[in-house]
Amino acid sequence: MVSPELSARAAAAVQRAIAIGLDTYEARGDLAEAFVAVDWPSPAPSIMPLAAAMTPAQLALVRTLAAQPTVDLAFMKIANVRLARWISSEPPGILERIVPERGVPLWRVVRELEEARTAGELRRFLSTMSIADRLEAFGEVNAFGYEKPYRLEDTSFFDYGDLELLHALRDEGKVWAPRFADQLLTHDRRPRPAITWPVFLALVRAGISIEPRWDTLLPLGFGVYRDLTDEVVAAIHAERRDAAIVGAVGMSTPYAVGLPLLEKFPSAALTRLLLDPKDGPPAAIVKEVKRIAKNHPVVATALEAMLANAPQPVALSIARVIAPSSASELSPSEQVQLAKAGEMWDGHALTAAERLSANGEETSFAGHVELRSLVGADGSPAYDAWLYMVDSGVIFVAGTQQVAAEIIQRGLECSDRALRDGLSLVLVGAGKQGAKAGSKRARAAKKPAAKKPAAKKPAAKKPAAKKPAAKKPAAKKPAAKTKSR
Hints:
The protein is an alpha+beta fold. It is built from 20 helices and eight strands. The protein has helices at residues 8-20, 28-37, 56-66, 83-86, 106-115, 119-127, 131-141, 163-168, 176-184, 193-205, 226-234, 238-249, 254-264, 268-274, 283-293, 297-307, 332-346, 352-355, 417-426, 440-444, and strands at 98-99, 104-105, 317-322, 369-375, 381-388, 392-397, 403-408, 411-413. The strands form two sheets. Strands 3-4-5-6-7-8 form a six-stranded antiparallel sheet, sandwiched between helices. A hairpin with a 2-residue loop joins strand 7 and strand 8. Helix 12 (238-249) runs parallel beside helix 14 (268-274).
């Protein structure tokens, strides 16, 4: 029902928007007119205004919209959820709690610090809050899935990338964690690691027995998350552990996460996942599983069964390796290959000479390219493997422009399993040539994926293959969706 405090113009606009559907793009025009009718600030402020600063007409408009089941106000820089608490139509939660020394709600304090881009000051403010309160606020922010109240971030109050904070966590979530875990299970999609790490670790640290229904929330990681991963996995009952690991590994980076887990928690199910019969793993992964199998019979048995019908890798060896600094070092066919490889990488049609020019441009491969000439079992030329820009490459049939395989983010992609396994054996570490890990040049080498022709591979197989390494690894901080501000 439209509030009687609204003007005829605002009320009519809202009624039209409701009839169309408040969560549709088509309703935006009428919604915008309603906001204009109540003199909403223009342009819309990046930080949602306090209820105390709103006029009666503005409050009436928000109250009307808050009463609707769904609404899309993102174009007005207003969150789509928790609107009733924003204007005090419902009892406040911790986000609406007034911070005494600042005189405004908690959500407002954090949003102001976020908008000011003062990470140090935000960190200092959050350190004044108890871990229990930070978890409670984290839960309120993430109670609605992707939608976040007050345009906060999912990590605004509890950032799982803060290892110091994770290690400091004890039993502060004893009451909160079970409640929030059950709330997450009502969401349509599996929560991202940014959400599951705090709640699952809070359950474990509070000594709460992990219920079967919570197994789907199991977070996994690698690198600095290795010990934490072992801690949360060990908390799941042994009878359910294998299934929980397999389900979680399938949502993460399988080899980086799965191989260490296979060694720590050996199982046939995880072995089968890593040696997926649909595509077959790279030979280097098989080699690592074989190493693990020496100490774990259950892995050895599963490995033997998986490899029983696997094709033998194509026999290949390296006949020549060069790191060209000029086109004159290459044959005509090799120059054409390099030009094509570069165009596949960033979409720019440049000659081999232009690719090797040390001009400082991002299109230059100078100092970051290597050619490996591969021969077959009989010693005849088989493939020309171009490796460049830290983590990429193209493998051509020798002397031709026919693409046999590609290397994307150090991952070898080839539809022929036997060939892929053979290439894997001779290209271990492929793509690392010519750039120091973490160097400015190496980071600059990663171009936007949009420049790579989409027809070459299904999009799902190469997410962010050419994006700057600004994000933490998936397990460390998934590539979270962010809201424009």
